[in-house]
């Protein structure tokens, strides 16, 4: 950004020294276009300075902290639910595969398919869990995508 | 919503060091103190970034929750708000990029801005009230139309009251970049004001 615009910003935001202010005034006095730009930026500053962020109801602050902790607890709840679902589903699947393998009437390729299904699910589950573990361990905020 | 700095900053810093040490060990009351200290600031910055009360509440609380879940990695030597803000800004930007958010934003009016002083002054004059209401809505929409980086520095400067150096430290960018983004943001808003008047 050029020197003039830098000084304009500093002047608008009251972060300008006396000597820099004199430098800016000299630039503005010498250039009509710059003066027009300065006027429009000043108008923007005046308008935005009049604006405020709307206040929420007071009840929000009373409940805010509890809401944060409820979120943390819900996260733990989801983890337990997921682990439980994986365990139960895995057991049911294992029992099903055992039934299939033990049944002499079932063709061999169906039994092979059932075993492949079970092994594939286990491999995928372990892979995902391992990835999530290392991501969680090393960078807790990587799941927040850019 | 503006955090006091001069005079109390030194005491707050050593106090925060102790709080962060305790919070890192899992002390909920210490973390609760940090929440109470920074919840308004986090909420208002999120409101400025996303333009919705419900979303600002949701995102700011989620930011605290994520920091709390990883309390063991809190560093007492560093600013808690700096860490919190990094999580918050990413949540807000992800939220803004979400397609559903973009669609609903087009349909909303900018109720996240106000000016109580001007609102009171305009109360008795319906024409002025209407004009000011329209200007506020258009300014709000213009701010929402800024790029996320331009909007961010504008919010931090105009609504959070930070100095250039503080914005630069928070965003980890040079002061020149802060001023450059501010300039772009204000030029865009200046174009809008010229169209209105």
What can be said about this structure in brief?
The complex is a heterodimer of chains A (146) and B (197). By secondary structure, chain A is mainly alpha-helical.
**Approximate strand percentage of chain A:** under 5%
Low-confidence stretches of chain A: 142-146
How does the major sheet of chain B shape up?
A: none
**Oligomeric status:** heterodimer
Class of secondary structure makeup of chain A: mainly alpha
CATH level-3 fold name of one domain in chain B: Rna Polymerase Sigma Factor, Chain: A
Mean pLDDT of chain B, rounded to whole units? 84
Tally the helices of chain A: what do you get? 5
Contiguous runs where pLDDT drops below 50 for at least 5 residues of chain B: 1-7
Give the CATH superfamily of one domain in chain B.
RNA polymerase sigma factor, region 2, helix turn helix motif
Please write the string of helix (H) and strand (E) elements of chain A. Answer: HHHEHH
| Beginning-to-end CA distance, first to last residue of chain A | 27 Å
How many H/I helical runs of chain B?
10
Describe this structure in words.
The complex is a heterodimer of chains A (146) and B (197). By secondary structure, chain A is mostly helical. Chain A folds into two domains: 3-50, no CATH class; 59-138. Helix content of chain A is 80%, strand content 1%. Chain A has five helices and one strand; from the N terminus they run H-H-H-E-H-H. In chain A, helix 1 (3-12) packs across helix 2 (18-30) and helix 4 packs antiparallel against helix 5. Mean pLDDT of chain A is 85; it is low at 142-146. With 197 residues, chain B is an all-alpha fold. Chain B has a domain at 1-108: RNA polymerase sigma factor, region 2, helix turn helix motif (Rna Polymerase Sigma Factor, Chain: A, Orthogonal Bundle), CATH 1.10.1740. In chain B, helix 1 crosses helix 2 (28-50), helix 2 runs antiparallel to helix 3 and helix 7 crosses helix 10. The longest helix of chain B has 23 residues, at 28-50. The two termini of chain B are 31 Å apart. At the A-B interface, helix 1, helix 3, strand 1 and helix 4 of A face helix 2, helix 3, helix 4, strand 1 and helix 6 of B. Strand 1 (52-53) of chain A pairs antiparallel with strand 1 of chain B.
């Amino acid at each position: 950004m050029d020197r003039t615009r830098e000084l304009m910003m500093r002047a608008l935001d009251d972060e300008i020294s006396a000597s820099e202010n004199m430098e800016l005034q000299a630039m503005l006095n010498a250039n009509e276009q710059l003066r027009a730009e300065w006027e429009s930026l000043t108008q923007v500053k005046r308008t935005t300075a009049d604006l405020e962020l709307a206040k929420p109801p007071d009840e929000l602050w009373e409940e805010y902290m509890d809401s944060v902790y409820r979120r943390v607890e819900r996260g733990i709840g989801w983890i337990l639910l997921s682990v439980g679902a994986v365990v139960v589903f895995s057991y049911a699947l294992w029992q099903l595969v055992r039934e299939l393998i033990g049944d002499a009437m079932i063709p061999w390729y169906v039994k092979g398919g059932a075993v492949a299904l079970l092994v594939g699910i286990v491999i995928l589950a372990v892979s995902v869990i391992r990835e999530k573990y290392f991501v969680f361990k090393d960078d807790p905020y990587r799941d927040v995508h850019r | 919503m503006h955090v006091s700095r001069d005079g109390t900053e030194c005491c707050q810093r050593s106090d925060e060091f102790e709080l962060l040490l305790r919070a890192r060990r899992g002390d909920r009351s210490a973390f609760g103190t940090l929440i109470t200290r920074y919840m308004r600031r986090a909420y208002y910055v999120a409101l400025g970034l996303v333009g919705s009360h419900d979303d600002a509440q949701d995102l700011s609380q989620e930011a605290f929750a994520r920091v709390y879940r990883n309390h063991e990695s809190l560093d007492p030597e560093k600013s808690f708000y700096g860490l919190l803000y990094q999580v918050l800004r990413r949540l807000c930007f992800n939220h803004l990029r979400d397609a559903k958010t973009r669609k609903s934003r087009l349909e909303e009016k900018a109720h996240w801005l106000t000016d109580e002083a001007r609102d009171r002054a305009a109360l008795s004059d319906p024409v002025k009230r209407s004009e000011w209401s329209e200007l506020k809505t258009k300014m709000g929409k213009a701010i929402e139309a800024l790029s996320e980086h331009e909007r961010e520095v504008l919010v931090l400067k105009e609504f959070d009251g930070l100095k250039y150096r503080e914005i630069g430290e928070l965003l980890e960018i040079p002061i020149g970049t802060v001023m450059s983004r501010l300039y772009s943001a204000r030029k865009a808003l200046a174009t809008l004001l010229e169209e209105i008047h």
